C-alpha cells in the first residue's frame, strides 16, 4: 500500500511522496469545513491549518532523515498518509546512541517550530491569544492560525514520545535499553510495552465510543509486532554466514550460449540467475533473471547470452554475513555473486532468491 503514492518532489535529495488515501482525507476535511457552516475566511484558515499540520509532519520526518544521513544511513523516501508520515530509512542505525539521536530529532523539530510560533505571537500579537475562551476554536485570523500551529506541534511532540512503536518514543526507549541489553532483547521489551499501550488505546476508545482511538491502537499493536519480527530477522541475517546458504552446485553459462539455454535451465531447475564466463572459462559477468524474462517477452531467445550479460561480477568471502551480502548486492545491483576466497577458488554462489528464501523460512 505504501507504494501507491505520488511524488511531490525531491528535497535535500530525498523524494517526498503522498499516499493516494491522503486525497480522500483532504476531501473529507473540505466537507467538514463546509458542513460546519464556517465563514469563507474560517474555511480557508481551517484548510490551511490542516495542510500546515502535514507540512510539520514532513519537517518532522526530515529531522529523522537528515540526522540519519550524519551516520551514513540514507533515506529512500518520505511518505505522507492520513495516519502521519514515515521516513523510510535504508537501514537502522547500528549504534544505540545513533538510533537515539535519529529518533529524538523528529520531535525536536516540532519543539523548534512551537518555540518560533510562541516567540512570534508573544512578540507581535500578545500573550492573550494563548488564553482559551469560547472563540478559541474559531481560526479566523493569522495570529489564531499561528497559535493553532503552536499547539499542533506541542501535541505532535508529546504524541510521538509515547513509548510504543511506530512512535519515536518506542525507538527512543529501544535505543536507551539497547545500551545495556542489546538490540534484540530491547526491541522485545519495547514491543511488549507498545502492545500494552495499544490495548489501552483500544479499550479506552471502545469505552468512550471514540473509534478512532481503536484504529490507532490496532495500528500501534500491528507495528509493534512487525518491528519485533523485523529486528529478530535482522539479527539472524547478521549471525548467519553466506557459506551456510550458498549453492555448491550451479550452472555457468558462456558468452556464446544461446538465451534458449538460460530459459530452459530456468524452467527446469531452481536456478534463475547465472554466472557468465568467456570462451576461456574466465568468469566475467552475470545473467539476471529479469534479462531472461526480457528475452522471452521480446522473443530474443535465439540471441547469444553475451547480448544480455552484465559485467557486474563480484566474489564474496564465505564468512560474510547474509545481512552484509544482501546490503552490498542491493547497493551494487547484483542478482548473483560467487562465494569463495577468489575467482579461482569458488565454493558456490549466492543469489537474491537464496536470500529471500532464507528470510521467508526465518520469518515463520
Major beta sheet summary: 4 strands, mixed
The SSE order reads EEHHEEHHHHHEHEEHEHEEH
Number of helices: 11
If you average the pLDDT, what whole number results? 84
Q: Which spans have pLDDT < 50 for at least 5 consecutive residues?
A: none
Shape assignment? elongated
Q: How many beta strands in the DSSP annotation?
A: 10
Helix content: 55-70%
List the helices and strands and how they pair.
Blueprint: E1 5-11, E2 14-19, H1 21-35, H2 40-70, E3 75-81, E4 84-89, H3 96-124, H4 142-160, H5 168-181, H6 183-207, H7 211-239, E5 252-254, H8 259-268, E6 274-277, E7 283-287, H9 289-297, E8 315-316, H10 322-332, E9 336-340, E10 346-351, H11 352-363
Parallel strand pairs: 2-3, 5-6, 8-9
Antiparallel strand pairs: 1-2, 3-4, 6-7, 9-10
Describe this structure in words.
The chain has helices spanning 21-35, 40-70, 96-124, 142-160, 168-181, 183-207, 211-239, 259-268, 289-297, 322-332, 352-363, and strands at residues 5-11, 14-19, 75-81, 84-89, 252-254, 274-277, 283-287, 315-316, 336-340, 346-351. By secondary structure, it is α/β, with parallel strands linked by helices. The strands form three sheets. Strands 1-2-3-4 form a four-stranded mixed β-sheet. Strand 9 and strand 10 (346-351) form a beta hairpin. The relative contact order is 0.07.
Characteristics of this structure?
alpha/beta; CBS-domain; 10 strands; 3 domains; four-stranded mixed sheet; elongated
Short description:
56% of the residues lie in helices and 14% in strands. The protein has 364 residues and is α/β, with parallel strands linked by helices. The radius of gyration is 26 Å and the shape is elongated.
Amino acid at each position: 500500500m505504501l507504494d501507491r503514492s505520488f511524488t511531490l518532489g525531491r528535497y535535500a535529495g530525498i523524494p517526498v511522496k503522498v499516499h493516494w488515501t491522503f486525497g480522500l482525507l483532504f476531501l473529507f476535511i473540505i466537507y467538514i469545513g463546509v458542513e460546519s457552516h464556517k465563514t469563507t475566511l474560517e474555511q480557508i484558515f481551517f484548510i490551511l491549518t490542516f495542510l500546515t499540520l502535514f507540512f510539520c509532519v514532513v519537517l518532522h520526518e526530515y529531522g529523522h532523515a537528515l540526522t540519519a544521513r550524519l551516520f551514513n544511513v540514507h533515506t529512500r523516501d518520505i511518505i505522507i498518509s492520513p495516519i502521519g508520515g514515515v521516513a523510510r530509512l535504508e537501514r537502522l542505525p547500528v549504534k544505540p546512541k545513533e538510533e537515539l539521536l535519529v529518533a529524538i530529532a523528529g520531535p525536536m523539530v516540532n519543539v523548534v517550530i512551537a518555540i518560533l510560533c510562541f516567540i512570534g505571537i508573544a512578540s507581535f500579537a500578545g500573550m492573550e491569544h494563548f488564553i482559551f475562551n469560547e472563540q478559541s476554536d474559531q481560526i479566523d485570523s493569522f495570529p489564531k492560525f499561528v497559535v493553532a500551529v503552536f499547539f499542533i506541534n506541542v501535541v505532535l511532540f508529546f504524541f510521538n514520545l509515547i513509548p510504543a512503536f511506530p512512535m519515536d518514543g518506542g525507538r527512543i526507549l529501544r535505543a536507551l535499553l539497547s545500551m545495556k541489553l542489546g538490540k534484540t532483547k530491547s526491541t522485545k521489551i519495547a514491543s511488549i510495552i507498545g502492545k500494552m499501550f495499544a490495548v489501552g488505546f483500544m479499550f479506552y476508545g471502545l469505552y468512550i465510543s471514540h473509534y478512532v482511538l481503536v484504529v490507532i491502537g490496532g495500528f500501534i499493536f500491528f507495528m509493534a509486532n512487525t518491528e519485533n519480527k523485523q529486528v529478530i530477522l535482522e539479527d539472524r541475517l547478521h549471525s548467519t554466514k553466506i557459506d551456510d546458504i550458498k549453492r555448491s552446485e550451479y550452472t555457468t553459462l558462456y558468452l556464446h550460449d544461446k538465451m534458449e539455454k538460460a530459459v530452459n535451465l530456468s524452467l527446469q531447475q531452481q536456478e534463475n540467475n547465472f554466472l557468465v564466463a568467456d570462451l576461456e572459462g574466465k568468469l566475467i559477468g552475470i545473467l539476471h533473471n529479469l534479462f531472461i524474462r526480457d528475452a522471452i517477452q521480446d522473443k530474443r531467445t535465439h540471441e547469444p547470452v553475451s547480448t544480455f550479460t552484465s559485467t557486474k561480477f563480484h566474489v564474496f568471502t564465505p564468512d560474510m554475513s547474509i545481512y552484509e551480502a544482501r546490503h552490498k548486492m542491493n547497493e551494487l545491483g547484483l542478482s548473483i555473486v560467487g562465494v569463495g576466497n577468489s575467482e579461482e577458488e569458488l565454493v558456490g554462489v549466492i543469489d537474491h532468491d537464496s536470500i529471500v528464501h532464507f528470510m521467508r523460512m526465518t520469518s515463520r
